[in-house]
Recover the amino acids of this structure.
């Protein structure tokens, strides 16, 4: 059974720092992996989608990597801004089911 | 393209009433998924539907919960005889045919049972 863990659970950094959010999964047989952002009381916004055959994806200041063999993905945020404050969720796509298994998220606060 | 539309955004029900949550997928998307987010918990899969078919309902509670995605109109998640423990945020996501493009989520319905 796939389990997804995100560390740390919460993170507070000063503006301008580069930071790394971690996502671990127990079963390396994944279809793809999606990173989302959730603002308080709001829905989920898709940030990056990495297929199982890919190693990384980039969008603006965001870069996500995938290492299936070690069961890890990282989300790198460059030059963090207060507007980046949100909860970041990692979701692992399960082959044959069209189902995503979510981690519990990392709550990020970027201080001005 | 309006995205995934969920309504209502907030819903208050008394214990024992019925709750109906609606989800219209993105244009061109034929797959709909419902997830529940309990306070301070992660998102949990409930059900996966295509038009007129329930594909996977392994995450649905056995009683009081049902879902449908009719040929015409939105997908409906129905909760009968609500209890306080049903209070949560319910999110709908959609995707096109296949799994290659990931999910697009709606803004959710926040159900409060009083």
């Amino acid at each position: 059974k796939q389990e997804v863990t995100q560390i740390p659970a919460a993170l507070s950094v000063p503006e301008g720092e580069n930071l790394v959010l971690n996502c671990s999964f127990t079963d390396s047989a994944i279809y793809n992996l999606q990173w989302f952002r959730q603002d308080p009381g709001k829905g989920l916004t898709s940030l990056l989608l990495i297929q199982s055959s890919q190693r990384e994806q980039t969008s603006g200041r965001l870069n996500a990597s995938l290492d299936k063999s070690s069961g890890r993905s990282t989300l790198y945020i460059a030059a963090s801004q207060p507007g980046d404050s949100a909860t970041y969720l990692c979701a692992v796509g399960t082959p044959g089911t069209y189902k995503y298994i979510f981690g519990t998220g990392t709550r990020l606060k970027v201080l001005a | 393209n309006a995205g995934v539309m969920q309504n209502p955004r907030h819903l208050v029900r008394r214990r024992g009433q019925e709750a109906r949550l609606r989800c219209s997928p993105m244009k061109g998307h034929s797959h709909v998924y419902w997830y529940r987010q309990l306070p301070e918990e992660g998102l949990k899969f409930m059900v996966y539907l295509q038009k007129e078919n329930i594909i996977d309902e392994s995450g649905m509670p056995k009683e009081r919960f049902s879902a449908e995605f009719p040929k015409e109109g939105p997908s409906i998640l129905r909760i009968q005889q609500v209890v306080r423990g049903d209070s949560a945020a319910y999110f709908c996501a959609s995707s096109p045919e296949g799994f290659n493009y990931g999910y697009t989520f709606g803004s959710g319905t926040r159900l409060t049972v009083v």
Remarks:
- The mean pLDDT of chain B is 94.
